[in-house]
Amino acid sequence: MKKITVLSGGMGGARFLQGLLHGIANGTVPGLDADAHVTVIANTADDIWVHGMKVCPDLDTVMYTLGDGIDTDRGWGRRAETWHVKEELAAYGVEPTWFGLGDRDIATHLVRTQMLDAGYPLSQVTAALCDRWNPGVTLLPMTDDRVETHVAIADEESPSGRRVVHFQEYWVRLRAAVPAEMVVVVGLDESSPGPGVIDAITDADLVVLPPSNPVVSVGTILGVPRVREALQSTPAPVVGLSPIVGGTHVRGMAEQMLTSIGVEVSAAGVARHYGSRTAGGVLDGWLIDSRDHDAVEEIRAAGIACDAVPLMMTDHDATAAMAAAAVALARNAR
Ligand code: GDP
Ligand code: CA
């Protein structure tokens, strides 16, 4: 297989991609050519305008991670970061003060915002930023249109009993600690796939759903008109890796998001949510963690090829082994 397309969120997707590229470079992913090329369709529904700047957290997490600029401890933002601008803005009392804007990171947002202001679409801006970072993949925003995930939370002071906050406010300020009553992705239905997005799915030899958030990362990409149809019709096998291990997310907030849309928080629950391609869904195969092996038969019965292997992305080799298992499953699935 030569052309691999991955539908990615931020941290989970980026770590998987790092392991996949590591495995391709070292020849430890049987079935993939040594010169295999990876295209990433990244979620942009986390994007936010803040202090006049356009911030694209998932695009930047993938770009910095694969370009070796990420702060590996935090898992987001730039290494060797300082926070002077954020402190100065707070001293002026300018809201929001909760959003994590580092000084180095701000340079990326300024370049992006200036290019957008000059009329370039996000896809071209992303390509320009990648000229510096050389992530080793083709990085495509899912859409050039403005799409933003918002979350409804309970608020006793509001007449409706509810308040709607931007996804970043839910995650960064509220730390996903209050129940999400509803997830609304503003602009999604009216958006168009970014340049190259549909072709990347229909021309691929393999499509992978990495262990990214099934609702606010992969779910929003699938919601871009024509993307789900492309997955259903592509001749390439489509395999996913469960972001739920042992009944919970490893890190992040997949649990809160799945609960908000009424999907069981389990490896099998997410598999059923994505569904088999033989029954109108998007999956041919689904990898689950070894500790969830009891669910294998149930997932196979739903028409989805399934194996249980270790799915903890502890280091590049472990993650490359996950990629190898995904490729093996894809080859058996079709
Ligand atoms: P985000 O945009 O930064 O939230 O990142 P993604 O959407 O790409 O991925 C976040 C999800 O990755 C989390 O909700 C977890 O469920 C999942 N995840 C993180 N680390 C691991 C891991 O080591 N193994 C597995 N199987 N899933 C993981
Ligand atoms: Ca994200």
Explain this structure to me?
By secondary structure, this protein is of the alpha/beta class. The protein has three domains: 3-45 and 193-333, Rossmann fold (3-Layer(aba) Sandwich); 50-60 and 67-136, Orthogonal Bundle (Helicase, Ruva Protein, domain 3), CATH 1.10.8.240; 148-186, no CATH class. The protein has 13 helices and 14 strands. The chain has helices spanning 11-26, 57-66, 84-91, 103-117, 122-133, 167-173, 197-202, 218-223, 227-233, 254-260, 267-274, 296-301, 316-333, and strands at 3-8, 37-42, 48-50, 53-55, 138-141, 148-154, 162-166, 182-186, 206-209, 238-241, 244-245, 248-249, 285-289, 305-309. The strands form four sheets. A seven-stranded parallel sheet has the order 5-2-1-9-10-13-14, with helices on both faces. A three-stranded antiparallel sheet has the order 7-6-8. A two-stranded antiparallel ribbon has the order 3-4. Strand 11 and strand 12 (248-249) form a beta hairpin. Helix 1 (11-26) packs across helix 13 (316-333) and helix 2 packs parallel to helix 5. The longest helix is centred in the last third of the chain and has 18 residues, at 316-333. It is globular. 46% of the residues are buried. The model has no long low-confidence stretch (mean pLDDT 97). The structure holds guanosine-5'-diphosphate and calcium ion. Residues 9-10, 43, 46, 57-58, 217 line the site of calcium ion.
